[in-house]
Amino acid sequence: MDCRKSFAFSSSANLGSGFDILSVAHDAFFDEVEACISSDGIRVSVVGNEVMIPEDPLRNSAGFSVISLLKDYGIKDGVTLKIKKGVPAGLGLGSSGASAAAAVASVNSLFSLGLSKDSMVKYSMLGEGAVAGTPHPDNVAASIFGGFVAVLGERTVNLSLKYDDLKFILFIPSLASNDKTKKARELVPKIVETSSYVKNMKYGLSLVLGLERGDRDLIRHGLNDEIVEKARLPMFPYYPKLKEIALSGNAIGSCVSGAGPSIIVFADNETDVNLIETEGEKLMESMGYSVNIKQAKVGGGVRVE
């Protein structure tokens, strides 16, 4: 049986004010997807998951992406997808995006389609739409390209990173929900004040310039959001205090990871990581949340075995 296997890292999207635009891949977790030519249509099996992941290909990000890809390229062969979940689902860490990215990469290699990375993002994001109701590209773009990315319409651009000791602390509450992303997107305001828009433009530019220049203060300023994060705060009552703890430990900054509930803290060698982890865990537990704390570094793009 002809097969290909790919690996895609977890990711954090909506960095600062970069809703649906700015994201980063990190090596905290990864998904593995093996695609094999089959005579049984499109089939999906999932192993290693703690939260129920749909095996119906029309409701699975990997399956839906592959169906769309095969249809557009007129491929009549069936494909069996075996998804080994490493990225925890429903926690704002790009779980469905990692599965879709790895599946598209595997099928691209399996049929020698020669897809560009931007085309891989296009098909992977369709799978996100099957899960979240909206085909958002930021998580899949990070998992495919690796590093920090900016999604600009149909084009994704890697940001140059001049920050050698950058690392992340992920606070991951046990609050997984399969429809959490859809609910979080419903909270995004349809109309915003001009003053809030201007502030967010400043934040976004500050974050991009800070990453590309290795400027700690610019990154810290850029990890703020006047619109989306503020609208979603009722979903994460622990976040404002957790951010205070992070800054008291001299973190570069922090923001909600994707649609939450996970929080990503940007740190470097000047950061008191132990203080942030210890005090952060105490805070979460005092508010009734069980939390997993994981350190990570910037991750690479999807890899075909």
From TrEMBL:
Which processes are annotated in GO (biological process)? Answer: threonine biosynthetic process
Binding site residues for ATP: P88, A89, G90, L91, G92, L93, G94, S95, S96, G97, A98
Q: What Gene3D superfamilies is this protein classified in?
A: 3.30.230.10, GHMP kinase, C-terminal domain (3.30.70.890)
> Cytoplasm as a keyword?
yes
InterPro entries from the UniProt entry: GHMP_kinase_C_dom, GHMP_kinase_C_sf, GHMP_kinase_N_dom, GHMP_knse_ATP-bd_CS, Homoserine_kinase, Ribosomal_Su5_D2-typ_SF, Ribsml_uS5_D2-typ_fold_subgr
Q: Which residues form the GHMP kinase N-terminal domain?
A: 68-147
Predominant location: cytoplasm
Q: Give the matching Pfam families.
A: GHMP_kinases_C, GHMP_kinases_N
Q: Which GO terms describe its cellular component?
A: cytoplasm
Its annotated pathway reads:
Amino-acid biosynthesis; L-threonine biosynthesis; L-threonine from L-aspartate: step 4/5
Q: What does the protein in this record do?
A: Catalyzes the ATP-dependent phosphorylation of L-homoserine to L-homoserine phosphate.
The entry's protein name is Homoserine kinase
